[in-house]
Structure formats: C-alpha cells, structure tokens
Amino acid sequence: xxxxxxxxxxxxxxxTSLVQQNHIGDASSLATSxxxxxxxxxxxxxxRLCCPVHHDPSVPSGWEPSNRPGVSRFFSGLxxxxxxxxxxxxxxxxxxxxxSDFDLIIVDAGTNDxxxxxxxxxxxxxxxxxxxxxxxxxxVILLPILARSVGKWPAGGAERAKAHWINRQSIEFAAxxxxxxxxxxxxxxVDPDSEFGEPYPGYSDDGTxxxxxxxxxxxxxxxxxxxxxxxxxxxxxxxxxxRFDPVNNxxxxxxxxxxxxxxxxTGEQNHRLGGQLVHPGTGVWVEAICNVEIPAHDGVLGISLxxxxxxxxxxxxxxxxxxxxxxxxxxSFPSAQWQGALRTPPLKLRPGKAxxxxxxxxxxxxxxxxxxxxxxxIDIRPISNPVRA
Length: 389
What we know:
Layout: E1 11-15, H1 17-20, E2 23-26, E3 29-33, H2 37-44, E4 53-55, E5 75-77, E6 79-81, H3 87-92, H4 94-97, E7 104-107, H5 119-135, E8 139-142, H6 158-175, E9 180-182, H7 186-189, H8 212-225, E10 260-264, E11 268-273, E12 285-294, E13 300-308, E14 316-321, E15 338-343, E16 347-348, E17 357-364, E18 371-383
Parallel strand pairs: 1-6, 1-7, 3-14, 7-8, 8-9
Antiparallel strand pairs: 2-3, 4-5, 10-18, 11-17, 12-15, 12-16, 12-18, 13-14, 13-17
Helix pairs in contact: 2-8, 5-6
C-alpha cells in the first residue's frame, strides 16, 4: 500500500560508507556523527526528521563494513548503509531491509562501482534497486553519484564522465516513476568555480567522504528539501509539570531543569544538563533531546549532546559526535550561526540505581574566544522499545 505522506520520524537511508558514516558505534556507545549529512538534517530540522537507530553488536551476513567477516556496524534501525559495497551488494540486502518499518528511503548506490563497472550496468542496478522499493510502496529519494576530487577521479577521466551520464539516467527514471524523486546533494557539495566539479575546499576529508562542513551543507539542503515531502510537525513545547511518575506518567520528562546557558571559556568542557534527573527503572529505554542556539564562532571543534548510563556496563549515546581524522585531529564545525535540536540515540538502562547523566560537550580550538550557548526544551524521557522491524 502506497503512503502519500511519509512519516518524518522514520526516514530510512540506504547505501555505502556515505550513508553508514552518519552513525558510529562500538561495544559500549553509539552516536550520530558530525560528518553525517542525515545527522545534520535531523538537527537543522529541529528534530522533526529522524532516522532512528539503536545499539546492536550483531553481524548479519552481507552487512559487514568493507566486507570484513565478523565486523559489526554496532547499530540496527533505519540506517542501511554498509561501507565498501557495490550496487549489486546493496541490491542483495533489499529483502532484509524491507522487513523494517518505514515509508520513505533515501538511496545512494554506485559510487563504489565507478572504476570497475560500465555506466549502463551501474544505471541498471540503481534502477532495479529503486524499482523494488517502489513496488513495496515506499517513497524513494535517489541520490546522484557524489562528485569526487581529482585526486580520486582524475580530471577528464572516465569516472567523471560516467557519473554525469548515470545521474542524467536517474533524473529520467524519477520523472517516469511515481513516488520517486531526486535529491541532488551535489548542489550543496560541488564548487561551481571548480573546472572539474570537485567538492568545495574543506567539505571532504579525503576527496570522497564527508567532513563536518560538507555534511552540514548537504544536511541543511536536505532538511529544506524534505519540507515539501513530509508533514510539518509543530514546534516542541514542554510543560514544566510533564514530569516522570511511575504510576501516572511513566513517559514523563526525567529532567527537572528544562533550560540552561552554557559558557565554554577554553578547550573542552562538559556541561551538565537537566538538573536532578529521575531513574525510570532498569531495562527502560530513554532518549534525550534539546534545542541549541549556536552563535557565529570560528573556533568550534565539537558541540555534542551526551546521555550516559553510569551503571556498571552502562552505555553512552551521543548526538553529533565530533569527527576526528586518522591522526586524531578534529574537524571544525561551521563558523556561521546555526540553531537546531540535538537528539541522542535511545539508551537502554542497565541494572543500577543512579539516574543517567546528560551533558553538552563543547570543544574549542586552542586560543579561541569563549562561546555562550543557549540550551532549551531539555527533554529526557522513556520511549517504546526501538528494537522492532
């Protein structure tokens, strides 16, 4: 059955490392990443858009990053990205992901095929993937092949020409198939002054993948684009008396303080949020969300919301975790003013009596001016079990 108004709260994303890297996890943590374009779309939509994921160390066959046997992505949910996969490998995963609950899916496929497959093979596989999803009643947003630097695809080389042709085929496919659309992430990614259509300087960490500024630009464009496709939700309004009560309001807010003004003078500071939190019980799933207003500042390396279970074997969930290069260097956040909502992945509380802790983590470059951030609508509350199809 076709859905005319897809749910904004269950956006699915499918593809390669360009998709997987929206989330990062390990045995004890999970985070949305500041190098993730979907992560930024969620933030800049003020929490209206959501690609839900949850911690999961399992290793389904065919879902191993870079085809490394036994390696887990450490999450499940609606991020269906697996690094290193060719389009045909993505196609093989469709039957499994179609068991999940979503209405709209954003599809990246073919970028890892460009140097080994013909343009027709890539275009045909992309069309087959979209056709299966459309036949299942999904709204499909096709992503063009993302442009790369000349260090990855040589100037005047076959890969650049093939990408242009494949992207034209995708436009034609979408025009001829109801419920199929194109989101051109290259519109925010490609420097129009570049002779060979390369990404803007600083938008990529390696000529292929996103750094923080590139993800911010594409995420902002995506949040605006989806305004016309999914219903517009009202602004989040919190009532001060909407507090957790195990008998009468077991879905109430665990926080006592709903706003804060943080000042980071230098380096890295962890600002405690929410006042006196309440423990809702072992085994309960909780998530945190808050609004932030960030002033223009050219020295920010990280602004993250971190929800921590202090119990033994407790996990940590983070919204907009900073992105580090292989050498440990942090990539800068946008210098322009921005505002949005930071939402953590859901956290399942382990046995213990101490309530979870919530922090706004801010990192500044050495020698930077202090930064003052207004935080509002702090909301930490129990949610339904996210482990579902």
